[in-house]
């Protein structure tokens, strides 16, 4: 203050209700009644600090998105080579047999890994999920079978014969189903039966937190 005649700094103050308020102090030396005095103006900068934190958080997410996109592209290239070699290996073997079955299972697992890279790319681009029409029957059975491998649990399925097609991101929904089955397996360390069902329902306005219309109920 003595050198420049003014100073601007930030401080935190305790309010009567016990909360903390962020203040920007702007002080200046002035002459007051023939004496030198300090005039201070205090501004509440809590909202500004929140905006700065949100901007910083957004920038970090953007950087993370770029990193995730790069990893996803590199990983996808590796998976493409693996899938190509699996296809060539299966073509060189009889259609049936233990080895052919193992290669088919490996190919399915690799395709699931490719779906995960697609999720990373979706996150990196900040876009909407990539939806396509598919049947829930195969999606649920593949996800459950993958999650049950090496466990003592087993699944019982109850699917409607006329189950409607659904428009979903198969990678994301498959990941959700796998997580649910894995949680169920962890809840039954000694083994057990997991019941998975899928049926058609028609949602009425205000009945569920969903848009009215035809839906597939899976539980």
Summarize the structure.
The chain is an alpha+beta fold and 219 residues long.
Task: Describe what you observe in this structure.
The chain is 47% helix and 28% strand. By secondary structure, it is α+β, with helices and mostly antiparallel strands. The protein has 3 domains: 6-44; 50-125, Helix Hairpins (Orthogonal Bundle); 132-218, 2-Layer Sandwich (Heat Shock Protein 90), CATH 3.30.565. The strands form 3 sheets. Strands 1-2-3 form a 3-stranded antiparallel sheet, with helices on one face. Strands 5-7-8 form a 3-stranded mixed sheet. α2 (98-125) packs across α4 (170-186) and α3 crosses α4. The longest helix is centred in the first third of the chain and has 46 residues, at 46-91. It is elongated and about 105 Å long.
């Amino acid at each position: 203050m003595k050198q420049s005649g003014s100073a601007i700094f930030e401080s935190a103050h305790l309010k009567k209700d016990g909360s903390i308020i962020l203040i920007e102090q702007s002080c200046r030396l002035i002459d007051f009644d023939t004496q030198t005095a300090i005039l201070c103006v205090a501004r509440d900068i809590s909202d500004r600090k929140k905006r700065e934190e949100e901007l910083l958080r957004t920038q970090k997410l953007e950087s993370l998105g770029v990193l995730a996109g790069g990893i996803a592209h590199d990983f996808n290239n590796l998976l493409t080579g693996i899938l190509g070699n699996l296809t060539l290996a299966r073509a060189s073997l009889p259609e049936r047999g233990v080895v052919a079955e193992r290669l088919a299972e490996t190919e399915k697992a690799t395709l699931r890994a490719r779906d995960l890279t697609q999720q990373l790319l979706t996150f990196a681009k900040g876009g909407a999920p990539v939806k396509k029409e598919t049947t829930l029957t195969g999606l649920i059975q593949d996800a459950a079978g993958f999650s049950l491998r090496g466990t003592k649990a087993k699944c019982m399925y109850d699917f409607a014969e006329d189950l409607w097609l659904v428009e979903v991101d198969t990678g994301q929904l498959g990941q959700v189903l796998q997580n649910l089955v894995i949680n169920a397996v962890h809840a039954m360390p000694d083994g057990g039966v997991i019941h998975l069902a899928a049926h058609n329902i028609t949602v009425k306005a205000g009945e569920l937190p969903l848009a009215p219309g035809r839906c597939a109920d899976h539980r």
